[in-house]
Give the backbone structure.
Amino acid sequence: MNQNILENEYIEKFPKGSHLAKMGNFLRQKKNPTILEFGVERGASTKAFIWLTEKLNGKVYSVDINDCSNVSNAENWKFLESDDLKIDHVLNSFVEIKKKGVDLIYIDSYHENFHVIKLLNLYFKYVKKDGAIFIDDIDNIEYRKSYNIKKESAKFWQCIVYDLTSDAVKEFYYNNMEKTHYTKYFGENGLGKFYKLSNLFEEPNPYKKLWNYNIFIKILYPYLRKLAKLIRL
Ligand SMILES: C[S@@+](CC[C@H](N)C(=O)[O-])C[C@H]1O[C@@H](n2cnc3c(N)ncnc32)[C@H](O)[C@@H]1O
């Protein structure tokens, strides 16, 4: 552990067991870590990253579609107002990432499965070997527990979005199993982690649709099993 960091201050910024701490603990293993963050808003994650990388002599690069430049004036932080899918614009603005890659990417911008998958496919190669990509909001249990069918249609859609994102992220893993390890953390709406095994600048595998059974088979499964036994399938 780095000696510049007071543990009580660290725990204040990265509370024990939190998703932020999962990323903070990962970064503390790195020398001069660089972070690329998608989604800043009011800067909760950004400020924590900035604080930690100041101690570790690292850098934070953040992108948001809205102007969030007032979140911090720290020297080790660069902000770009842009759609994060505009990779050429992002990399030409953050040339260090284009040339040397990053240790950690944090995806917390537009929470839709198609967006997250595009980001993974675009930016995976810019993560260094033994670096990681973290993806926020991939588990819907908090919404399911508090859902009120009469009042909260937004929560209904949110449940589906998080499920679709979780499935899409898992599918990305299945397509790239020799290039990355995948972990899903529960709580706080879920957090995915890809630990990168392949080298910097190596592309992810092209998307290949994997066989899966039809969702209705799941519902019919008990009856199909009985039928299969009856006809000795
Ligand atoms: C959930 S908030 C980010 C929260 C922040 N990481 C935190 O911990 O406080 C999502 C942010 O993503 C931004 N966003 C949405 N779509 C985006 C896109 N296509 N490109 C970049 N940022 C986007 C929104 O403007 C919003 O500020």
In short: The radius of gyration is 20 Å. Residues 143 and 155 are 6 Å apart (CA to CA). The domain at 7-230 is CATH 3.40.50.150 (Rossmann fold). Residues 38-45, 63-66, 83-85, 108-110 surround S-adenosylmethionine (CB under 6 Å).
